[in-house]
Amino acid sequence: MAEDYKKYLDPKTLTKVSRLDIIARLVVEGFISGMHKSPYHGFSVEFAEHREYVPGDDLRHLDWKVWSKSDRYYIKQYEEETNLTAHILLDVSESMKYGSEEVNKQDYANFIAASLAYMLTQQQDAVGMVMWDSDVRLHLPASSSPAHLKLLLHEMANQPSAKKTHVEQTFHGLAEKIRRRGMIILISDCFAPVDELMRGLEHFRHRRHEVIVFHVMDEYELTFPFEGNVLFKGLEEWPELLVEPRQVRQAYLQAVNRFQMRLQKACANNKIDYVLVKTTDALDVVLSAYLAARGKVRRVAAR
User: Fold this and answer.
1) What predicted TM-score, i.e. pTM, was given to this entire model?
2) Is 120 in contact with 184 (CB distance < 8 Å)?
């Protein structure tokens, strides 16, 4: 059955499907259908607390270290045993409209957001959404109802006009509003100074939210394959620039690589999951690879 879905999971093909709810279902059911066990069950498996063992509990979750010290049986309880509240922070700034092919960064970010929202509501978790650029353009509180998912997808399909990115102040304001501990999922090209971006994300970590960053980039932004004289159109208030690519290619690629590595390192230092995504990547590969890696890390940490 997994093979039947693969033709739908190419980003170019997904742009031909007009409704985000159908896109989300195709993506999620497509990659799950090829796996023996759902990779997203217990999307958040962070260790939460202990509770006393009662007959019938899964013995795999017994904490033997606690038993060796107290001679009493305790079960490790994880966040997956409670309802998760997730908030998707979707970047709708002007730079997200760039695309070298049919799928621009905004399209791809929408696919990720729709798929994750569908996934979370399918397991009865609550999901909210924030669309932002220089400020918050839309804030939908978290809910797990099917009607809320439809509203969320409708708003994504009718996004506000894009403006310049302003990260730090926007995120500080959101961190003060989103008080209940949960999951923050940032989907963005992250075109902002790394220090400013991290100060905003650190505010969420300070409030004990789990944070995931999906860093969406176009293939051309990562490889700079341009030839001949090229006129680059400025986005987010930057001017146009006429460039001979061969003269700047090496310096550009070095700068992009430094930026990406610095962002990845800063996320790791703050215990933030970081996923670099290209707009040419099949969504099933992106999601299944991330969730499989996430599950492996959490299982190791729980031992």
Assistant:
1) 0.77
2) no
